[in-house]
Protein backbone atom coordinates (compact mmCIF):
# COMPACT_ATOMS: atom_id res chain seq x y z
CA UNK A 1 0.00 0.00 0.00
CA UNK A 2 1.38 3.38 -1.00
CA UNK A 3 1.69 6.14 1.64
CA UNK A 4 -1.15 8.15 0.10
CA UNK A 5 -3.46 5.14 0.13
CA UNK A 6 -2.44 4.35 3.69
CA UNK A 7 -3.18 7.92 4.76
CA UNK A 8 -6.68 7.74 3.29
CA UNK A 9 -7.32 4.43 5.04
CA UNK A 10 -6.11 5.86 8.36
CA UNK A 11 -8.46 8.83 7.99
CA UNK A 12 -11.34 6.49 7.16
CA UNK A 13 -10.67 4.27 10.18
CA UNK A 14 -10.29 7.21 12.54
CA UNK A 15 -13.44 8.92 11.28
CA UNK A 16 -15.40 5.68 11.61
CA UNK A 17 -14.26 4.91 15.15
CA UNK A 18 -13.73 8.44 16.44
CA UNK A 19 -10.44 7.43 18.09
CA UNK A 20 -7.94 4.66 17.25
CA UNK A 21 -4.71 3.56 19.02
CA UNK A 22 -1.43 3.38 17.09
CA UNK A 23 -1.20 -0.37 17.75
CA UNK A 24 -4.58 -1.04 16.13
CA UNK A 25 -3.71 0.99 13.05
CA UNK A 26 -0.34 -0.74 12.68
CA UNK A 27 -1.95 -4.17 12.94
CA UNK A 28 -4.76 -3.42 10.49
CA UNK A 29 -2.48 -1.83 7.90
CA UNK A 30 0.43 -4.25 8.30
CA UNK A 31 3.11 -1.65 9.02
CA UNK A 32 5.25 -0.71 12.01
CA UNK A 33 4.04 1.53 14.79
CA UNK A 34 6.79 4.01 13.89
CA UNK A 35 5.40 4.24 10.36
CA UNK A 36 1.94 4.92 11.76
CA UNK A 37 3.33 7.61 14.08
CA UNK A 38 4.94 9.35 11.09
CA UNK A 39 1.69 9.05 9.15
CA UNK A 40 -0.27 10.53 12.04
CA UNK A 41 2.16 13.42 12.37
CA UNK A 42 1.69 14.20 8.68
CA UNK A 43 -2.09 13.89 8.83
CA UNK A 44 -2.26 16.07 11.96
CA UNK A 45 -0.21 18.79 10.24
CA UNK A 46 -2.56 18.57 7.26
CA UNK A 47 -5.57 19.01 9.56
CA UNK A 48 -7.08 15.60 8.72
CA UNK A 49 -6.85 13.92 12.13
CA UNK A 50 -5.86 14.95 15.65
CA UNK A 51 -2.77 13.10 16.86
CA UNK A 52 -2.34 12.39 20.57
CA UNK A 53 0.11 10.27 22.54
CA UNK A 54 -0.68 6.69 21.56
CA UNK A 55 -3.21 7.25 18.77
CA UNK A 56 -5.39 9.62 16.79
CA UNK A 57 -8.90 11.00 16.96
CA UNK A 58 -11.15 12.59 14.38
CA UNK A 59 -10.42 16.26 13.77
CA UNK A 60 -14.11 17.13 13.85
CA UNK A 61 -17.32 15.73 15.26
CA UNK A 62 -18.23 13.86 12.06
CA UNK A 63 -16.69 10.57 13.11
CA UNK A 64 -18.44 10.59 16.46
CA UNK A 65 -21.79 10.33 14.75
CA UNK A 66 -22.77 13.88 15.69
CA UNK A 67 -24.39 16.43 13.41
CA UNK A 68 -22.13 17.50 10.57
CA UNK A 69 -22.15 19.45 7.37
CA UNK A 70 -21.85 17.70 4.04
CA UNK A 71 -19.07 18.10 1.48
CA UNK A 72 -18.43 21.64 0.27
CA UNK A 73 -19.53 20.90 -3.30
CA UNK A 74 -22.91 19.59 -2.17
CA UNK A 75 -23.42 22.57 0.14
CA UNK A 76 -22.88 24.93 -2.81
CA UNK A 77 -26.02 23.45 -4.36
CA UNK A 78 -28.05 23.84 -1.15
CA UNK A 79 -30.37 26.90 -1.19
CA UNK A 80 -28.21 28.86 -3.69
CA UNK A 81 -30.83 31.56 -4.35
CA UNK A 82 -31.18 32.41 -0.68
CA UNK A 83 -27.42 32.46 -0.24
CA UNK A 84 -26.95 34.76 -3.22
CA UNK A 85 -29.54 37.20 -1.85
CA UNK A 86 -27.76 37.18 1.49
CA UNK A 87 -24.40 37.67 -0.22
CA UNK A 88 -25.59 40.62 -2.28
CA UNK A 89 -27.23 42.30 0.72
CA UNK A 90 -24.10 41.84 2.81
CA UNK A 91 -21.87 43.32 0.09
CA UNK A 92 -24.05 46.44 0.11
CA UNK A 93 -22.94 47.08 3.70
CA UNK A 94 -19.38 47.86 2.59
CA UNK A 95 -17.75 51.00 1.23
CA UNK A 96 -14.50 51.60 -0.71
CA UNK A 97 -11.49 51.37 1.58
CA UNK A 98 -13.07 48.93 4.03
CA UNK A 99 -10.97 46.07 5.39
CA UNK A 100 -12.48 42.70 6.18
CA UNK A 101 -11.85 39.11 7.13
CA UNK A 102 -13.86 36.45 5.29
CA UNK A 103 -13.92 32.87 6.51
CA UNK A 104 -14.54 29.81 4.33
CA UNK A 105 -18.07 28.81 3.43
CA UNK A 106 -20.49 28.50 0.56
CA UNK A 107 -22.32 31.73 1.43
CA UNK A 108 -19.08 33.65 1.89
CA UNK A 109 -17.88 32.38 -1.50
CA UNK A 110 -21.00 33.89 -3.05
CA UNK A 111 -20.37 37.01 -0.95
CA UNK A 112 -16.90 37.21 -2.52
CA UNK A 113 -18.50 37.17 -5.96
CA UNK A 114 -20.60 40.17 -4.93
CA UNK A 115 -17.47 42.04 -3.81
CA UNK A 116 -15.98 42.01 -7.30
CA UNK A 117 -18.23 44.91 -8.26
CA UNK A 118 -17.00 47.07 -5.37
CA UNK A 119 -13.66 48.88 -5.25
CA UNK A 120 -10.57 49.28 -3.08
CA UNK A 121 -11.28 46.69 -0.40
CA UNK A 122 -8.68 44.97 1.76
CA UNK A 123 -9.67 41.31 2.08
CA UNK A 124 -8.06 38.74 4.39
CA UNK A 125 -9.25 35.16 3.99
CA UNK A 126 -8.29 31.54 4.62
CA UNK A 127 -10.02 30.40 1.39
CA UNK A 128 -8.10 30.24 -1.87
CA UNK A 129 -11.40 30.27 -3.77
CA UNK A 130 -12.45 33.51 -2.10
CA UNK A 131 -9.01 35.05 -2.63
CA UNK A 132 -9.06 34.15 -6.33
CA UNK A 133 -12.62 35.43 -6.76
CA UNK A 134 -12.04 38.82 -5.10
CA UNK A 135 -8.75 39.24 -6.98
CA UNK A 136 -10.70 39.47 -10.24
CA UNK A 137 -11.00 43.15 -9.31
CA UNK A 138 -7.48 44.57 -9.41
CA UNK A 139 -8.38 47.43 -7.07
CA UNK A 140 -8.78 45.03 -4.15
CA UNK A 141 -5.82 44.09 -1.96
CA UNK A 142 -6.06 40.44 -0.97
CA UNK A 143 -4.19 38.48 1.73
CA UNK A 144 -4.44 34.68 1.71
CA UNK A 145 -3.79 33.11 5.11
CA UNK A 146 -1.47 30.08 5.11
CA UNK A 147 -1.65 26.94 7.22
CA UNK A 148 -2.64 23.29 7.06
CA UNK A 149 -4.69 22.73 3.92
CA UNK A 150 -8.23 21.36 4.06
CA UNK A 151 -8.85 20.07 0.55
CA UNK A 152 -12.65 19.70 0.69
CA UNK A 153 -13.43 23.38 1.25
CA UNK A 154 -10.11 24.69 -0.09
CA UNK A 155 -9.25 26.35 3.20
CA UNK A 156 -6.28 26.76 5.51
CA UNK A 157 -6.62 25.73 9.13
CA UNK A 158 -4.68 25.08 12.31
CA UNK A 159 -2.21 26.91 14.52
CA UNK A 160 -0.25 28.54 11.70
CA UNK A 161 -3.42 30.00 10.19
CA UNK A 162 -4.61 31.33 13.56
CA UNK A 163 -1.18 32.88 14.24
CA UNK A 164 -1.27 34.71 10.91
CA UNK A 165 -4.80 36.00 11.47
CA UNK A 166 -3.60 37.58 14.70
CA UNK A 167 -1.10 39.70 12.75
CA UNK A 168 -3.94 41.62 11.09
CA UNK A 169 -6.58 44.05 12.20
CA UNK A 170 -9.64 44.85 10.11
CA UNK A 171 -12.84 46.80 10.33
CA UNK A 172 -15.09 43.84 9.63
CA UNK A 173 -15.42 40.08 9.76
CA UNK A 174 -17.98 38.37 7.53
CA UNK A 175 -18.50 34.84 8.76
CA UNK A 176 -20.61 31.81 7.94
CA UNK A 177 -21.93 29.44 10.59
CA UNK A 178 -23.17 25.88 10.73
CA UNK A 179 -25.97 26.40 13.24
CA UNK A 180 -27.38 28.74 15.87
CA UNK A 181 -29.39 28.60 19.07
CA UNK A 182 -30.55 31.09 21.69
CA UNK A 183 -27.08 31.33 23.23
CA UNK A 184 -24.60 31.35 20.36
CA UNK A 185 -23.66 30.89 16.74
CA UNK A 186 -22.11 27.46 16.20
CA UNK A 187 -20.13 25.23 13.85
CA UNK A 188 -19.44 21.54 13.34
CA UNK A 189 -15.66 21.63 12.96
CA UNK A 190 -13.22 22.54 15.74
CA UNK A 191 -10.57 24.03 13.46
CA UNK A 192 -13.02 26.13 11.49
CA UNK A 193 -14.38 27.36 14.82
CA UNK A 194 -10.87 28.45 15.83
CA UNK A 195 -10.46 30.39 12.59
CA UNK A 196 -13.73 32.27 13.09
CA UNK A 197 -12.90 33.04 16.72
CA UNK A 198 -9.48 34.40 15.77
CA UNK A 199 -11.08 36.70 13.18
CA UNK A 200 -13.66 37.95 15.68
CA UNK A 201 -10.85 38.95 18.05
CA UNK A 202 -9.24 41.23 15.44
CA UNK A 203 -12.14 43.33 14.13
CA UNK A 204 -14.46 46.16 15.10
CA UNK A 205 -17.68 44.70 13.66
CA UNK A 206 -18.80 41.10 13.13
CA UNK A 207 -21.43 40.20 10.52
CA UNK A 208 -22.80 36.66 10.29
CA UNK A 209 -24.21 35.40 6.99
CA UNK A 210 -26.73 32.59 7.55
CA UNK A 211 -29.81 31.33 5.77
CA UNK A 212 -32.76 30.33 7.94
CA UNK A 213 -31.97 26.62 7.62
CA UNK A 214 -29.13 27.18 10.08
CA UNK A 215 -31.66 27.89 12.84
CA UNK A 216 -33.11 24.39 12.53
CA UNK A 217 -29.81 22.68 13.37
CA UNK A 218 -27.89 21.86 16.51
CA UNK A 219 -24.18 22.62 16.26
CA UNK A 220 -21.23 21.08 18.05
CA UNK A 221 -18.86 23.95 18.84
CA UNK A 222 -19.78 27.46 20.06
CA UNK A 223 -18.18 30.06 17.79
CA UNK A 224 -19.35 33.09 19.76
CA UNK A 225 -22.25 34.30 21.92
CA UNK A 226 -24.74 36.67 20.33
CA UNK A 227 -23.23 39.50 22.36
CA UNK A 228 -20.10 39.22 20.18
CA UNK A 229 -22.11 39.56 16.94
CA UNK A 230 -23.15 42.94 15.52
CA UNK A 231 -25.26 41.96 12.51
CA UNK A 232 -26.98 38.94 11.02
CA UNK A 233 -27.80 38.92 7.32
CA UNK A 234 -30.39 36.22 6.64
CA UNK A 235 -33.32 35.41 4.33
CA UNK A 236 -36.15 35.40 6.84
CA UNK A 237 -37.09 35.77 10.48
CA UNK A 238 -35.26 33.63 13.05
CA UNK A 239 -37.37 31.50 15.40
CA UNK A 240 -38.97 33.54 18.17
CA UNK A 241 -36.65 32.41 20.98
CA UNK A 242 -33.50 33.06 18.94
CA UNK A 243 -34.85 36.39 17.72
CA UNK A 244 -35.52 37.49 21.28
CA UNK A 245 -32.02 36.46 22.36
CA UNK A 246 -30.53 38.41 19.46
CA UNK A 247 -32.59 41.49 20.29
CA UNK A 248 -31.45 41.31 23.93
CA UNK A 249 -27.84 41.13 22.71
CA UNK A 250 -28.30 44.12 20.41
CA UNK A 251 -27.81 42.18 17.17
CA UNK A 252 -29.13 43.92 14.05
CA UNK A 253 -31.11 41.56 11.81
CA UNK A 254 -30.89 42.38 8.10
CA UNK A 255 -33.47 40.50 6.04
CA UNK A 256 -32.34 39.78 2.49
CA UNK A 257 -35.49 37.82 1.72
From TrEMBL:
InterPro entries xrefs: Carb_Metab_HTH_regulators (IPR050313), DeoR-like_C (IPR014036), DeoR_HTH (IPR001034), NagB/RpiA_transferase-like (IPR037171), Tscrpt_reg_HTH_DeoR_CS (IPR018356), WH-like_DNA-bd_sf (IPR036388), WH_DNA-bd_sf (IPR036390)
SMART domains the UniProt entry points to: DeoRC, HTH_DEOR
Superkingdom classification of source: Bacteria
Domain HTH deoR-type: 3-58
The keyword Amino-acid biosynthesis is assigned to this record: no
A Gene Ontology molecular function term of the record: DNA binding
Record SUPFAM superfamilies: NagB/RpiA/CoA transferase-like, Winged helix' DNA-binding domain
Keyword Transcription applies: yes
UniProt keyword annotations, A-Z: DNA-binding, Transcription, Transcription regulation
Family matches, as PANTHER family: AGA OPERON TRANSCRIPTIONAL REPRESSOR-RELATED, HTH-TYPE TRANSCRIPTIONAL REGULATOR SRLR-RELATED
Name by which UniProt lists this protein: DeoR/GlpR family DNA-binding transcription regulator
Amino acid sequence: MRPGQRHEEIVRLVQKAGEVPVEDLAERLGVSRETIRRDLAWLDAAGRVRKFHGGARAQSARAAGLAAEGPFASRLADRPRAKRRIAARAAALLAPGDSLFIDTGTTTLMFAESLVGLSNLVVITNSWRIAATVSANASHKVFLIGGAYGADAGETLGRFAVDQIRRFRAGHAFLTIGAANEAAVMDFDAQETEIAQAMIERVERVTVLADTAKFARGGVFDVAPWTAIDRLVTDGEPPLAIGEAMAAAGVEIIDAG
